[in-house]
C-alpha cells in the first residue's frame, strides 16, 4: 500500500515546477520563437518596455479544451517565453495542428482562444515587416 501512495505523490509534487502568470505588471519581456514549417532559424522576436495589457486580457480568456487533441500532426508552433522582474520564465506554446486547429498549451493543459493567436501573429508580422516597429533589446 505504501508504494501505491508514493506513485501518486511524486507526479503531483512535480507539477509545482511550472510557473503561472499572476499579474500583468509582472511581465517585463516576451520572447517569441517561430518554429513553424515556414520559419527561418533566426525568427526570434524580443518584446520589452511595452504595455502588455492586451496580452494579459487575452490570456485570461483562454478556454480549456477537454476533448482529446492530436498534437503530433502539426505544422509547427510559436514558443512564447515570458519573463518577469526576477527573470523567471513562464512558457506558452501556440501549436498549429493539422486536424484540430490552433491549440495553446500551458502546464500540459490545452486551450483555445482565437484572439490570442491573432495577437501573437500581429506582433510577428509587424516585426517581420518593420523590425523597428516594436521595442527590442
Set out the fold topology.
Blueprint: H1 2-14, E1 27-36, E2 44-48, H2 53-60, E3 63-64, E4 74-84, E5 89-97, E6 102-106, E7 109-112, H3 114-129
Antiparallel strand pairs: 1-2, 1-4, 3-7, 4-5, 5-6, 6-7
What do these coordinates show?
The protein has one domain (19-129): Immunoglobulin-like, CATH 2.60.40. Strands 2-1-4-5-6-7-3 form a seven-stranded antiparallel β-sheet, with helices on one face. The chain is built from three helices and seven strands. A hairpin with a 4-residue loop joins strand 4 (74-84) and strand 5 (89-97). 27% of the residues lie in helices and 34% in strands. The protein is of the alpha+beta class.
Structural descriptors:
Immunoglobulin-like; single chain; seven-stranded antiparallel β-sheet; alpha+beta; 137 residues
